[in-house]
C-alpha cells in the first residue's frame, strides 16, 4: 500500500513540475 502511494506521489510531483515548467515557458514567451 505504501509503495503504491509513493509511486502515485512521485507521478503527481512529476506532473506538477511539468505543469510549472510549461507555465514558466509560457510566461517567458510573453516577455
Q: What does this entry show, briefly?
A:
The chain has 31 residues and is mainly α.
Describe the structure.
- Helices cover 94% and strands 0% of the residues.
- It is an all-alpha fold.
- The chain has one domain (1-30).
- It is rod-shaped and about 40 Å long.
- The mean pLDDT is 82.
Supply database-style keywords.
rod-shaped; 31 residues; mainly alpha
List the helices and strands and how they pair.
Elements: H1 2-30
Query: Strand-residue fraction?
Result: under 5%
Q: Could you describe the largest sheet, including whether it forms a barrel?
A: none
What is the helix/strand order?
H
Mean pLDDT comes to 82
pLDDT < 50 runs, ≥5 residues: none
Q: What is the terminal-to-terminal distance? A: 45 Å
Amino acid at each position: 500500500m505504501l509503495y503504491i502511494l509513493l509511486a502515485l506521489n512521485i507521478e503527481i510531483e512529476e506532473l506538477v513540475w511539468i505543469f510549472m515548467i510549461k507555465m514558466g515557458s509560457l510566461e517567458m514567451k510573453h516577455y
